[in-house]
Amino acid sequence: MVPLRARRALLAAALGPAGRRRVPRHRAPAAARPSSGAGDEAEEPGGATAMLRHLLLKLRATGPVTVAEYMREALTNPGQGYYTRRGGIGESGDFVTSPEISQVFGELIGIWYISEWIATGKPEAFQLVELGPGRGTLTDDILRVFNQLASLLSKCDVSIHLVEVSPKLSEIQALMLTGGKVQSNPKDKSAYMKGVSKTGIPIFWYRDIQDVPPGYSFYLAHEFFDALPIHKFQRTEKGWREVLVDIDPEVPDQLRFVLSPSSTPATENFIQPEEMRDHVEVCPEAGVIIQRLAGRIEKDGGAALVADYGHDGTKTDTFRGFRNHKLHDVLRAPGTADLTADVDFSYLRKMTQGRTATLGPIKQREFLKNMGIDLRLQVLLQNSCDGATHEQLLHSYDMLMNPKKMGDCFNFFALLPHHRLVHPDKKHKPESKSPLPPVAGFGELLLK
């Protein structure tokens, strides 16, 4: 955050008096992401689905599987996985995300990246890389901010890079961001699809973060890490045991949780000796991705912003499902529901291995307030032309900021180069450098 006056000027320039667009997207349900995922597949009596039948065959052949393997099959199986077959985002889906509630959310995220770009000396090029872009709504809002600040970015080469495994969602993203004008399997590219935004910015699609070209980049992971597969562990009198998924012997076409009879490789690798909780969830894939992001930022510069459900190493059993905006049994009708677990930000911080600095986690309501959401709301209310729009604005604001809704459920967490927060030669010549600009959104700076 640049000084307050400069930040307000940046907000005004980026967003204009009324944002040049409708403000609320729809009237969101009362809960942020109530349960897992519905869809277009008919569920037979007892919750039988093609995915369940596949899993039953697998379990009969191999025995119990880890919760991570169960989640991986249920969410990303190429034939019957929840994300590969549907998507579930939005009012007609299984959950609603912050960008689907109000454009203001994405606009302020866009301002955050511009603020960091300015604070680091306005590099001549940057990549915006979003992991799991959903329907593309967040990127679309950010692109609108970039367009409003076209004069500021006129000498900067900006490109968009989306990491998406779902064919269906990538089609939806392409339609929203480019009008559907994309080229599949471009030559000499690791991307599987490319296009140009409606404002002329190139966009590329990838299946893995490792396929994204190196370079100064801003990374965005909004409700991405919470859907990655987790391992679950339970402390017992005999030591730590892993929670597994198996067939229920009393109801042969249903699943149940069981404990491993002895320790597993995951138990040995992921449980820390100092662990005090009796139940722990660990997401190794999140750790690997954070390591890659930290390595890229350390080498090429940039920053990463993570926004998700989560905690700082305090919670235990958070594994749950969402379907038709209601909580859903995670073991029932796999493949038709979104499965999620809260992100352990203390684990993400540890997995940076000191290669970057971290800020947060900070509650969503605090981050958005620091970013100027109240100022933005007042401008929009002053420019709203009818009572319905006025009511929608207040409703959307309440969804994002109310502690009992999304305000305290979601957290923001950032990865930044160490030199962004502390001058490299500060210890030797503490008086030689001017103060570094603080990081927007995070208020008091805490280097962890």
Q: Give helix % range.
A: 25-40%
Overall 3D form: globular
Q: What composes the largest sheet?
A: 10 strands, mixed
Calculate the mean pLDDT score and round it. Answer: 87
Name the assembly state.
single chain
Specify the number of helices. 16
> How would you classify the helix and strand content by structural class?
alpha/beta
Number of strands: 18
Strand content: 15-25%
| End-to-end distance | 19 Å
Low-confidence stretches: 18-42, 90-95, 444-448
Radius of gyration: 22 Å
Description of the structure:
The protein has 448 residues and is of the alpha/beta class. 35% of the residues lie in helices and 22% in strands. It has 16 helices and 18 strands. It has helices spanning 4-15, 50-62, 67-76, 82-85, 98-101, 103-119, 137-148, 167-178, 265-270, 284-300, 345-351, 364-371, 373-383, 387-401, 403-407, 418-421, and strands at 65-66, 125-131, 157-163, 182-184, 193-196, 202-206, 217-222, 231-236, 239-248, 251-259, 279-282, 302-311, 320-323, 326-328, 338-340, 343-344, 357-363, 410-416. Strands 2, 3, 4, 5, 6, 7, 12, 16, 17 and 18 form a 10-stranded mixed beta sheet that branches. Strands 1, 8, 9, 10 and 11 form a 5-stranded antiparallel beta sheet that branches. Helix 7 (137-148) links the parallel strand 2 and strand 3. The longest helix is centred in the N-terminal third of the chain and has 17 residues, at 103-119. The chain is globular and about 65 Å long. The protein starts with a helix and ends in a 27-residue tail after the last helix. Residues 18-42, 90-95 and 444-448 have low confidence and may be disordered.
